[in-house]
């Protein structure tokens, strides 16, 4: 049995935007926030959002506040590096003073990396990795229109580099947004598939951050690394976010126009972003990255499909935390043995994923059994994510876990 580690330092650590505005209709505050950081704004979004009445309304409000607005509405899913290059070339002489991302995770990541390249020059490849940004970037304001990624509050931008065939993170405190406006009304028009995939992503962020390794970092480690482990403050956000999703997921599936459920889901996604910004994601995300590259399936469905198997793998190292999860979700009897409570918590997460229509195994994602060794090998390259997992993952462990996920084997480990 793996020994369960704890936050021995009693550490609480968060990284967060200067201003967070949440609530239905709160997009009305966007012009006032943006104007604090500059008079010439670049708005980045995708083609779908760029053609909506809501987007046109936002642009009118910004221009009505006296702002000079430029728009880049060509952000593609998974944020190709080429998007960043195109925008940087188009706007490098435009005198942009603030960058606003409106949309899903790729649009918000686009705002971060575009603000970086416009401010500091070069190619986004110059900044791949952790803490490769030497100083300030243009102010970044985020406006999420989906409830899942948490990118509105994180200091990481993820780019797909087609030449290398991988998604690469640009991670730096300098990419922390100065403000975010979270208006759940934006999500009312989201297609069912997008709603489900992003909610699954939010659920995976909260579960992974809550069950992460408690690293007990020293001051140098906190200065040098973004992901420094689960701690007292990230746990607060995880607990609240999980409680919100426990009551909202089935609600948004039953009625996509349920405004209360939409608001709860979007607040939960924010909580997930606040937690992962310090605790980080772990094995489910490391394993999904090569799967996404192979199958081109939605990220949220990929991590959601993997999460049941990762939870079971991690159970020996996180028995007490999964037991707390069971109590938190209202499915565990506090008087029952800890293992029984933990299994109840994991099964409830399974049920929430099923309610969203998340694939139950890897075959539903289009993974072939012959792909599994390659996926395991590639996942091991995500060292920054695997370092957050509460149980060490070898390539052999990854392959065994993937084989269980391929078969749909959700049996629990016998030795605890």
TrEMBL record:
One Pfam entry name: Fe-ADH
Ranges of residues in domain Fe-containing alcohol dehydrogenase-like C-terminal: 195-406
Assigned protein family: Belongs to the iron-containing alcohol dehydrogenase family.
Keywords, ordered alphabetically: NAD, Oxidoreductase
UniProt-recorded name of the protein: Iron-containing alcohol dehydrogenase
Stretches assigned to the Alcohol dehydrogenase iron-type/glycerol dehydrogenase GldA domain: 17-184
Biological source species: Leucobacter chromiireducens subsp. solipictus
PANTHER family: ALCOHOL DEHYDROGENASE, ALCOHOL DEHYDROGENASE 4
């Amino acid at each position: 049995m793996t020994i369960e580690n704890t936050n021995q330092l009693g550490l609480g650590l968060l990284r967060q935007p200067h201003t967070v505005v949440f609530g239905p209709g709160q997009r009305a505050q966007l012009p006032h926030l943006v104007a604090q950081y500059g008079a010439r704004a670049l708005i980045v979004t995708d083609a779908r959002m760029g053609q909506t009445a809501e987007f046109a309304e936002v642009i009118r409000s910004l221009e009505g506040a006296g702002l000079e607005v430029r728009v880049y509405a060509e952000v593609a899913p998974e944020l190709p590096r080429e998007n960043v290059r195109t925008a940087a070339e188009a706007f490098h002489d435009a005198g942009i003073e603030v960058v606003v991302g409106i949309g899903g995770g790729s649009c918000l990541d686009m705002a971060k990396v575009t603000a970086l390249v416009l401010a500091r020059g070069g190619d986004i490849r110059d900044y791949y990795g952790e803490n490769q940004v030497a100083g300030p970037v243009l102010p970044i304001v985020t406006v999420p229109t989906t409830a899942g990624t948490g990118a509105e509050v994180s200091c990481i931008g993820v780019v797909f580099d087609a030449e290398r065939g991988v998604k690469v993170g640009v991670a730096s405190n300098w990419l922390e947004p100065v403000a975010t406006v979270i208006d759940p009304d934006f999500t009312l028009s989201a297609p069912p598939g997008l709603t489900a995939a992003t909610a699954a992503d939010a659920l995976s962020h909260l579960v992974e951050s809550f069950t992460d390794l408690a690293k007990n970092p020293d001051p140098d480690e906190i200065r040098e690394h973004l992901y420094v482990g689960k701690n007292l403050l990230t746990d607060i956000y995880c607990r609240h976010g999980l409680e919100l999703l426990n009551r909202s997921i089935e609600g948004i599936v039953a009625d996509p126009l349920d405004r209360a459920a939409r608001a709860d889901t979007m607040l939960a996604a924010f909580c997930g972003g606040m937690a992962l910004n310090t605790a980080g994601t772990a094995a489910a995300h490391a394993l999904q990255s090569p799967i996404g590259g192979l199958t081109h399936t939605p990220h949220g469905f990929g991590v959601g499909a993997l999460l049941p198997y990762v939870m079971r793998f991690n159970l020996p190292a996180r028995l007490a935390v999964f037991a707390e999860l069971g109590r938190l979700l209202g499915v565990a009897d506090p008087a029952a043995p800890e293992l029984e409570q933990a299994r109840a918590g994991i099964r409830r997460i399974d049920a929430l994923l099923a309610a969203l229509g998340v694939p139950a195994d890897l075959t539903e994602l289009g993974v072939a059994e012959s792909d599994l060794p390659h996926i395991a090998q590639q996942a091991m390259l995500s060292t920054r994510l695997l370092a957050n997992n509460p149980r060490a993952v070898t390539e052999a462990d990854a392959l065994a876990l993937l084989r269980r996920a391929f078969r749909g084997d959700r049996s629990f480990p016998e030795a605890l």
